[in-house]
Amino acid sequence: MPTSVTAYRGMSVEELDSNSFGMSWTLCKSKAEEFAFSVYSGKPRGLVVCSQIERDRILYYDPEDNEKEVVVANGTITNGNVVAN
Length: 85
What we know:
Blueprint: E1 4-11, H1 13-18, E2 24-26, H2 29-39, E3 47-54, E4 58-61, E5 69-72, E6 81-84
Antiparallel strand pairs: 1-3, 2-5, 3-6, 4-5
């Protein structure tokens, strides 16, 4: 894994506004979109944020995982760019 990766997270607008993002991210933008747009389908539409994550902040990554999930410590990522809404 490189020293830094671009990761994506599907989230609510409230999570974005909190600047305290959850632990589960993905290296696959389409997986984050799938989550954001299906989980929040009956609520205000979710969105996808991307952020650069340093390898030493990643607690878990399995290259065989079809969701390409990366897990970071809760509260580690506090900013990102909206890439889909």
